Amino acid sequence: MRADSMMDRLASIWLLLNPLSRSQRHSVSRVISGIVIALTLGPPASESLLFTTH
């Protein structure tokens, strides 16, 4: 359930990134994947990190 809402948030972020250039999108996608990895590992601090970057 939480993973679904997380994917929805990432999808909405990705739609916002679409107008960016390819190099910008690549660097931002690396940041997003880093957030996803941190959330998968599960420390609570990484969850607050996601909300501050959102």
Describe the overall structure:
The chain has three helices and no strands. The mean pLDDT is 74. By secondary structure, it is mainly α. The chain has one domain (2-53).
Give me the Rg, rounded.
11 Å
H/E topology pattern? HHH
Arithmetic mean of pLDDT: 74
Strand count, sense and barrel status of the largest sheet are:
none
Structural class given helices, strands, pairing? mainly alpha
Considering DSSP H and I runs of 4 or more, what fraction of the residues is helical? over 70%
Q: How many domains is the backbone divided into?
A: 1
Oligomer: single chain
Contiguous runs where pLDDT drops below 50 for at least 5 residues: none
Which word captures the global form?
Answer: flat
| Beta fraction | under 5%
End-to-end Cα distance: 20 Å
Number of strands: 0
- The number of helical elements comes to 3
Task: Pick out its properties.
3 helices, mainly alpha, 54 residues
Quick recap:
With 54 residues, the chain is mainly α. The chain has three helices and no strands.
How is this fold's topology laid out?
Layout: H1 2-17, H2 22-41, H3 44-53
